[in-house]
Amino acid sequence: MGRLALVTGGSRGIGAAISNGLKAAGYKVAANYAGNDAAAEAFTADTGIPTYKWSVADYDACVAGIQKVEADLGPVEVLVNNAGITRDAMFHKMSREQWQEVIDTNLSGVFNMTHPIWSGMRDRGFGRIINISSINGQKGQAGQANYSAAKAGDLGITKALAQEGAFKGITVNAICPGYIGTEMVRAIPEKVLNEKIIPQIPVGRLGEPEEIARCVAFLASDEAGFITGSTISANGGQFFV
Ligand code: NDP
Questions:
Q1: Can the keyword Heme be found in this entry's annotation (predicted)?
Q2: Which of 68, 75, 105, 173 has the CA that lies 20 to 30 A from 241?
Q3: Does the C-beta of 9 come closer than 6 Å to ligand 1?
């Protein structure tokens, strides 16, 4: 069996495609999720990939969850910080709760998951951290001050940790998906999707979760060892950095 990969939010949407892609590439995979037990059970039944429930927004829960995964499957060598939420509102209507929930999950979640795993990766001299940020962390998005701030923060921690991890064999990279056809995006009214969002995507369609999963599998591989601190923009040509 290959290395162990832990994928947060790994039982649905982009995360499920990442879990499946890594399994197909020969990794042992553990998928974390937050609360949707039915989706997690169906995912495990379909794929054989074990699922583990805890919130990435809770540091102590991350420590306990990672301990359980490692006791079951061995040390985490690849960490994919994919779990994410939206709580959209124009800024003048955004509540402190909407701000904090998104920061806690989408930004602090990356700290909460990476911090307990980091020392083990340093000791073993190998690690791959892949952070799923967003096009809206690169360009900003009206109605998503919270999400844009958190996802931009994910790019900052990626670059800082890349510098700290490089001499210990740890690479840290980010992927910024554009609009991908998951539940998060399908929740947008169809009229808005068809009339406002898709016309802004030069390739003329939403992305597929598997198109993000293939970027993750590449960054996780030994062949990507010279790539660290980088951001892959996978957005159908919608935005260039
Ligand atoms: P989905 O809403 O389809 O799935 C989100 C996943 O994250 C679920 O598995 C969910 O668990 C999990 N999750 C949410 N909160 C937590 C938490 N606190 N702790 C642990 N797990 C949690 O999202 P997508 O697949 O669309 O998005 C995945 C990532 O990609 C996110 O970070 C998102 O911001 C990013 N992204 C998505 C884009 C898109 O177009 N879809 C575009 C750009 C970035 P549960 O199943 O239990 O609810």
A1: no
A2: 105
A3: yes
